[in-house]
Design a protein that fits this description.
The chain has a single domain (8-128), classed as Small Protein B, Chain: A. Strands 1-8-9-2-7-5-4 form a 7-stranded antiparallel β-sheet. A two-stranded antiparallel ribbon has the order 3-6. The protein has 155 residues and is α+β, with helices and mostly antiparallel strands. 32% of the residues lie in helices and 35% in strands. The longest helix has 24 residues, at 130-153. The radius of gyration is 19 Å and the shape is globular.
């Protein structure tokens, strides 16, 4: 009997859940080079303001920052380079269709390792308006308040 190893998260895009409605998520592999894996293992990544695009039936991750490896040499990688995401053609076609029909965008939500391989969780997202963001904050605060009251009553 084999145990399932826990995924080790490198970084997450917490702002994405505040700025977008996430309709669907999909796990994709990342094509990395050189010292990028070592930098990811140190947690030197940032997904803020990054997004994914489809070009020539291939998917790419743009504006994701993976800082250079501190113990690297002259052959360190470019921190802001465009990285190819590894998905099946049918998955890419399905996402492309949804993006064109409904006005969605692709946002990276999390980078993590599964059995030694770097993966990125991509979310099919639709932007929130300002009043939607305020509503979400009100809901969170009310849930927190209810939990606090229940906790105090159970003492």
């Amino acid at each position: 009997m084999t145990e399932k190893k826990e995924d080790t998260a490198v970084t997450s895009n917490r702002k994405a859940y505040h700025d977008y409605f996430i309709e669907e998520t999909l796990e994709a592999g990342m094509s990395l080079q050189g010292t990028e894996v070592k930098s990811l293992r140190l947690g030197l990544a940032n997904l803020t303001d990054s997004y994914a695009i489809v070009k020539n039936e291939e998917m790419f991750l743009l504006n994701a920052t993976i800082s250079p490896y501190p113990m690297g040499n002259i052959s360190n990688h470019d921190p802001l380079r465009t990285r190819k995401l590894l998905l099946h053609k049918e998955e890419i076609r399905k996402l492309t269709w949804k993006m064109t029909q409904k006005g969605f965008t692709l946002i990276p939500l999390k980078i993590y390792f599964v059995r030694g391989r770097a993966k990125v969780l991509i979310g099919l997202a639709k932007g929130k308006k300002a009043f939607d963001k305020r509503e979400t904050i009100k809901e969170k605060e009310s849930k927190r308040e209810v939990e606090r009251v229940v906790k105090e009553r159970n003492r």
